[in-house]
Write the structure tokens for this entry.
Amino acid sequence: MGFFQKIVAGIKKTKDALSKKLFFAFSARALDDEFYDNLEEALLVADVGYEATEALISELKDEIFSRKIKKPEEARDVLKQLMIDDLDYEIPEFEYPLVILLSGVNGVGKTTAIGKLAHMFKDMGKSVVIAAADTFRAAASDQLEVWGERAGVRVIRHNEGADPAAVVFDAISSAKAKNTDVVLVDTAGRLHNKKNLMAELQKICRVVERELPQADFRKYIVLDATTGQNAVSQAKIFSEDIETDGIVLTKLDGTAKGGVVLAISKEVELPVTYVGVGEKIDDLIPFDATDFVNALF
Amino acid sequence: MALFENLSDRMNHIFSKLRNRSKLTELEIKQAMREIRVALLEADVNYGVVKEFTAKVSEKALGEEILKSLTPGQQIVKIVYDELVALMGSTHQKLAVGDRPPTIYMMCGLQGAGKTTMCGKLALYLKKQGKKVLLVACDVYRPAAIKQLKIVADRVQTECFEMGQIKPLKIAQEAVKYALKNGYDTVILDTAGRLHIDEALMDELVGLKKEMKPTEILLVVDSMTGQDAVTVADAFNKQLDITGVIMTKLDGDTRGGAALSIKAVTGKPIKFSGTGEKPEDIEAFHPERMASRILGMGDVLTLIEKAQDAFTQEEAEKLSKKMRENSFTLEDYLEQLESMKKMGNLGDMVAMIPGLSGRLKGAPQIDEKQISHSKAIIRSMTPQERRNPEIIKASRRKRIANGSGTSIQEVNQLLKQFEMMKDMMAKMQKGGLRGLRALKGMF
Ligand SMILES: Nc1nc2c(ncn2[C@@H]2O[C@H](COP(=O)(O)OP(=O)(O)OP(=O)(O)O)[C@@H](O)[C@H]2O)c(=O)[nH]1
Ligand SMILES: [Mg+2]
């Protein structure tokens, strides 16, 4: 099943509030104040956020004015396109050796996403090693090891409390020795306002850059689609502290639609790369802006 | 980003021109409500809840004497604040205790909300009240969830009951038998995270509830949750008739509007909040603090309380006087370093100061090793240097570094940090105390 279908299946199941609200808004007769109020509500309820919502609506109004649009259906297509434009980024192809580091606040789905990515690369015929660099949370490495087994990939781990940068160092050494294509780095969940933990993350990145300078190094922040406007702050600070390349948006199988990525895109221009749509190993799908926006409507 | 740090500032801006006029117009009140609406939406309060809330507040605002008062902005903020507190439940709600042992608390919630960590915190909290607590591993799905609970239990020195990956109901039943036999008066069931729309897994919880008759069913919610919080809470509440809510990860920089939304839709009290990754990072939920946080006014009360814990009254007065006079020296800094350690991270503190929460980046964070280095450095300075750090030029820095067994970089860093701290105090003085005074009038 493709991304779009999976999402749509999810929406049908959940009688999604947003698509109902958007449908309601666009079933208006005229593009009047009431129409804009309903539209605003629909976007706010999807966690698009106040500023991004107002920005989208004002862009829509400009388009409607300049193109003399009268019908709500036409307005809908314009809005869709505006949203797609906001989310559509050119993402460079992976080159190998490849290192992917996942970071993010606690509980967003980093470890699960690492498991899913390992499976994905295995399926592509790549060799993979996982660095269990969450040495802090109880049983984090054990959790990752289960994923390693499921994906058929080796996991480099140290004891609890060990230096995470040392785990990464070992994983990279192992990758170099065995000519492994992909190194996946799982990190401990950390709140972005904790300076010392962010510094630890920077140290991990430095190890990667020093030990594997020729590698294609991608740093993704994992965001939970259920998160509200705080996700903007997360994206901003993580990408300031470690130059982040993109977002992995998880838990889209719930009722939250992750509209906050629109707000993030306006503020930090960070592309969504993958989305998580469940707890199974193949529940990770490359992001597609058009499908994503279509699924919102 | 928002032009104004917090609602108080926004209100003052709207009403700043009105000081000398005796009446506010309806239009001005409307404008104020718009600002309140934006503040609440930015804090992730649910759209529907915001709508109802602003309607209620504007009714009050129009009816009251605020129009004639000298500080209409503050008056409106006060009404908003009072209503928020009232909505979230005015007082702290304690955990219920079962009629006969064991008391059973069942934790539930979405994936990644923080249930397992919270189980450990709650166990420690109850242990401190003299309870004997058994943790029960009913998350049989997530990889290594059982192992995680075991480690958590170990950390708070209590037992974890587990039977591997069998039916959670069976585990819970056996756990209760085990508890009775072994003198545990309290049982906490850790369940797997699940989506509220996952029928099979929700049925599992309903079954647990029916058979185990938990004393309390506690919904654990990530305080960073957005608009969907109401959908989730409503679904859990409808199916399980939860008895309370626990908000987690409040040590982040979220405004935490989800708390308000959840209380509004479920009517169930918020009982605790999680404020860190350590087992002792649990606090009884305080509606007043949450209200000022949602409004972006900083958690002044917590700050004051923490400060009170760490400093004696006298020390606090001395410090506050120095801050006022801007005469804080390295000598004072040395004295404060110890207390500072007790107060926790400086960054955490700054986050609670009104108006500064948004400017957290770059605030110094202090760890224990650094504190002892800092102390050594200051001790290697002459009294004159401590009072006038400006005179510490290169040669003096070298001497101080040698004397304290540190490096010149470390000396530089300490001096920089001290400057930052002084600067912050000046800001606290300007923004913080004004905000504090404004808040005082509210209690
Ligand atoms: N429904 C759903 N659940 C998910 C998804 N991704 C992860 N989860 C679940 O979310 C919970 C937390 O996932 P983890 O992968 O442990 O999250 P983490 O970010 O590594 O957590 P910490 O390391 O504790 O910070 C687990 O129960 C996962 O099964 C998803 O796409 N959909
Ligand atoms: Mg993890």
In short: The CA atoms of residues 25 and 37 of chain A lie 8 Å apart. The first helix of chain A runs from residue 3 to 14. Chain A has two domains: 3-87, 98-288. Chain A touches chain B through 49 residues (CB under 8 Å).
